[in-house]
């Protein structure tokens, strides 16, 4: 990850290998007008072009990036990332994107760190000519450089973007190398290496403890795997906490579908199914690093969903943590079962608000596309707060209703209190949320269905790499600062 700093230098005098220069329209082109025109740089938002500075600037290479006349923070986050991704073989960049304020400086810093992410843990080291110089440092050029609010914004950006990158790493790890015990251990190691003292406490329940604690949902899903399930709980309890936020994440390290097995292509990306747990853990660590005055209890509900001679069958009934019974009718709808126990624990912990994050349904992807997460909630005000946080963070989310008729359907099991799977194939994301709502009592709760945005199976764009995206982390950190009333 490059280190990011601030400077009041002018773009032409900044010392760096590459100058990234934002162009907001013809006036911004100045002496470069002819060069940019010859390169076919039309100024269409997001466009980039690269050329030697020819002595016009100290930096030997310029990357021009087109900006709108009045770029938003998200425009700048994307532009910074896009430009940084096109840097090849340079160690230092100076970034001149004309931030209008400190929020924009923060967005640029986030874009730099998010855009430089690469997952190469399993790539052999490049040989000879293929060896690349990594970007080591970036300096953002702004007149605000000497203001402490700007320095703080850059520090905050580093914390948040590194948390996003941590979540990406977990999602990208091959599922055979991140089975439930591995994931739990990796979370424990991450917490202790990221925080100095014991600001965040970690507790891990193994399968025996889960049985003692009557977590029948997590156990039922993990039953078919040789690698038994885990529940990892993180607690951050600052003395000045003004509110208690519980986060619950779906942590299916691999979703084969279980006995209701998926098709080959359907399961090929299912290592992503722990992206919700990755997001809540990474966000909790970031919230603690930032010292936000909000108590956070995060539950990573971790299991591997596999078929076997002893896997949970369609027709089986599970005894859940909150005392209710659930008839399983499709073992591929496993996320709601592990989340239900986490949600019940969050209610027991007397949280003021609960947010769960889950790659829950293909239906949500059908409804909102691959880049927008669904927000489903029991409380309109709280849903509004979450939506506002997602906007401020630059993550695309949109509310979906929990349609009235779903309640009766969730209660229509002939043998148990609840049924886990809707006999009708419509509104799958809504039914899943109606099921989860049964476990949150009266606590204001929002469910983020990130099935689409958690993974990018195409080429990298803006700050979104191929593979795990780390979606949810930025919204959760914003939400915590919103609830804490600080920035
Ligand atoms: N993990 C999947 C949901 C998913 C699908 C995530 C595509 C990311 C991309 C989930 O466990 C699942 O299999 N859901 C089923 C539910 C159905 C059986 C009611 C689905 O969406 O098909
Ligand atoms: Zn599934
Ligand atoms: Zn799943």
Tell me what you see in this structure.
The strands form 4 sheets. An 8-stranded mixed β-sheet has the order 7-8-10-9-13-17-14-15, sandwiched between helices. The chain is 36% helix and 20% strand. Strand 11 and strand 12 (325-327) form a beta hairpin. It is an alpha/beta fold. The chain has helices spanning 26-29, 33-38, 73-85, 102-115, 148-172, 180-194, 207-212, 216-222, 264-267, 275-290, 335-348, 362-368, 380-393, 405-410, 428-437, 473-484; strands spanning 3-7, 18-23, 48-52, 61-66, 92-96, 137-141, 200-205, 230-236, 244-255, 295-305, 317-319, 325-327, 353-358, 373-377, 397-399, 418-419, 445-449, 455-456, 467-468. Helix 4 (102-115) runs parallel beside helix 5 (148-172). The model has no long low-confidence stretch (mean pLDDT 97). One zinc ion binds at residues 255, 257, 332, 334.
């Amino acid at each position: 990850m490059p280190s990011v700093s601030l400077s009041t230098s002018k773009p032409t005098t900044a010392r760096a290998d590459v100058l990234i220069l934002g162009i907001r329209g013809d006036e911004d082109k100045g002496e470069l007008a002819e060069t940019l025109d010859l390169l076919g740089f039309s100024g269409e938002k997001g466009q980039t072009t690269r050329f030697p500075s020819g002595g016009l600037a100290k930096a030997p290479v310029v990357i021009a990036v087109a900006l709108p006349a009045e770029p938003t923070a998200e425009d700048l986050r994307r532009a910074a990332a896009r430009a940084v991704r096109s840097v090849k073989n340079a160690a230092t960049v100076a970034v001149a994107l004309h931030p209008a304020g400190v929020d924009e400086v923060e967005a640029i810093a986030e874009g730099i760190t998010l855009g430089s992410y690469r997952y190469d843990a399993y790539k052999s080291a490049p040989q000879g000519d293929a060896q690349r110089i990594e970007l080591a440092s970036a300096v953002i050029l702004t007149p605000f450089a000497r203001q402490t609010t700007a320095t703080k914004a850059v520090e905050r950006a580093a914390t948040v973007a590194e948390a996003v990158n941590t979540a990406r790493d977990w999602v990208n790890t091959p599922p055979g190398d991140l089975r439930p015990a591995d994931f739990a251990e990796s979370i424990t190691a991450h917490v202790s290496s990221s925080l100095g003292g014991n600001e965040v406490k970690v507790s891990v329940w193994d399968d025996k403890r889960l049985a003692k604690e009557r977590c029948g949902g997590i156990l039922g899903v993990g039953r078919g795997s040789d690698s038994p399930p885990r529940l990892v709980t993180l607690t951050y309890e600052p003395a000045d906490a003004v509110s208690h936020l519980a986060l619950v994440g779906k942590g299916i390290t691999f979703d084969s579908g279980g006995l209701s097995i998926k098709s080959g292509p359907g399961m090929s990306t299912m290592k992503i199914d722990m992206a919700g747990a990755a997001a809540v853990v990474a966000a909790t660590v970031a919230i603690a690093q930032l010292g936000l005055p909000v108590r956070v209890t995060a539950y990573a509900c971790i299991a591997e969903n596999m078929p076997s001679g002893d896997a949970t069958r369609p027709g089986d009934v599970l005894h859940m943590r909150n005392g209710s019974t659930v008839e399983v009718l499709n073992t591929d709808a496993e996320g709601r079962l592990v989340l239900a126990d986490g949600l019940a624990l969050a209610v027991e912990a007397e949280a003021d608000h609960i947010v769960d994050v889950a790659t829950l349904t293909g239906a949500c992807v059908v409804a909102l596309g691959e880049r927008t997460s669904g927000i489903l909630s029991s409380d309109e005000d709280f849903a509004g707060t979450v939506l506002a946080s997602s906007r401020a963070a630059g993550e695309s989310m949109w509310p979906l209703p929990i349609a009235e008729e779903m309640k009766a359907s969730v209660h229509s099991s002939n043998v148990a209190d609840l049924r886990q799977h809707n006999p009708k194939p419509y509104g799958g994301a809504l039914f899943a949320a109606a099921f989860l709502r049964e476990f949150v009592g009266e606590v204001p709760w929002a469910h983020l269905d990130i099935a689409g945005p958690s993974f990018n199976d195409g080429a990298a764009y803006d700050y979104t790499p191929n593979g795990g995206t780390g979606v949810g982390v930025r919204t959760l950190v914003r939400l915590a600062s919103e609830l804490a009333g600080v920035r």
